[in-house]
Amino acid sequence: MHIVILSASVRQGRSSHRVARFFNQFIPAHYQQASVELVDLKDYDFPLFEERLKFMDNPSGNILSFAQKIKQANGVIIVTPEYNGGYPASLKNVTDLLYDEWRRKPIALVTVSAGPFGGTQVMTSLLFTLWKIGAWVVPAMYPVPRVDEAYNENGDPVDKEATEKKAKRFLNELTWCMEAAAKMKQ
Q1: What is the tally of structural domains in the chain?
Q2: For the purposes of burial, counting CB atoms within 10 Å of the CB of 101, is it exposed (0-12), middle (13-18) or buried (19 or more)?
Q3: Is residue 37 within 8 Å of residue 5, measured between CB atoms?
Q4: Could you tell me the sign of the dihedral formed by the alpha carbons of 85, 36, 104, 164, in that order?
Q5: SS3 assignment for 51-118
Q6: d(C-alpha 50, C-alpha 52), whole Å
Q7: Mind listing the pLDDT tens digit for each residue in 35-53?
Q8: Looking at residue 167, which CATH number applies to its domain?
Q9: In which region does residue 155 sit, left (phi positive, over 0), alpha (psi from -120 to 50) or beta (all else)?
Q10: Residue 38: strand pairing partners
Q11: Partners of 37 in beta bridges
Q12: Could you report how far apart the first and last alpha carbons of the chain are, in Å?
């Protein structure tokens, strides 16, 4: 099983990337059956959305590379901050860019905020968008309140025991969905 961790923020000083780093370290240490790849949207510098990939005449190598990573993943963890109740334009951009690559793909949501609600307000809008494109959003969610206090820059959690317990429940749900999706394809 291959999991792509999609770090959605491209903003300077982004805190959500701390949580993406945590999962990038945690998954190989606790889920030997899964490989993991951190895909950072900041590395891609995508132009604003103009057209879906399948309708592009001459897509860039960056777009094709990104699409291939999502297509080959058995599951995706989207790590996104909440910006004024919504998710960043960088995430909306790549959500709209692809279609077939998202269809029936198990996707788990990690939302973060500097405040006490952990980005839970962004879940509704992101969930609706993912449903509209046919993605399979797993029922387990992973909200992170006060992210700057909960994780350091390297992705190390302040409360390691509680964080790992929560992460295992979250990842168990994602891996169950990934296994179910694989069985349905057979």
Answers
A1: 1
A2: buried
A3: yes
A4: negative
A5: CCHHHCCCCCHHHHHHHHHHHHCCEEEEEEECECCECCHHHHHHHHHCCCCCCCCEEEEEEECCCCCC
A6: 7
A7: 999 999 999 877 777 777 7
A8: 3.40.50.360
A9: left
A10: 5
A11: 4
A12: 15
User: pLDDT tens digits, the chain, 186 residues: what are they?
Assistant: 999 999 999 988 899 999 999 999 999 999 999 999 999 999 987 777 777 778 778 888 888 999 999 999 999 999 999 988 889 999 999 999 899 999 999 999 999 999 988 888 899 889 999 999 999 999 999 999 999 999 999 999 999 999 999 999 999 999 999 999 999 988
Rounded to the nearest 5 percent, the helix, strand and coil shares of the chain are 45, 20, 35
Q: Find all residues with CB under 8 Å of 40, minimum gap 6, and list them.
A: 7, 17, 20
Sheet with 35-40, strands from edge to edge, namely 35-40, 2-7, 75-81, 106-112, 136-144
SS3 call for 153: coil
Here the tokens at position 172 are 């168990």
Partners of residue 108 on adjacent β-strands? 77
Phi, psi of 24 (to 5 degrees): -65, -30
Quote the tokens at residue 109: 């949501």
Specify the pTM.
Answer: 0.94
Structural domain range at position 105? 2-185
Place of tokens 């998954």: 27
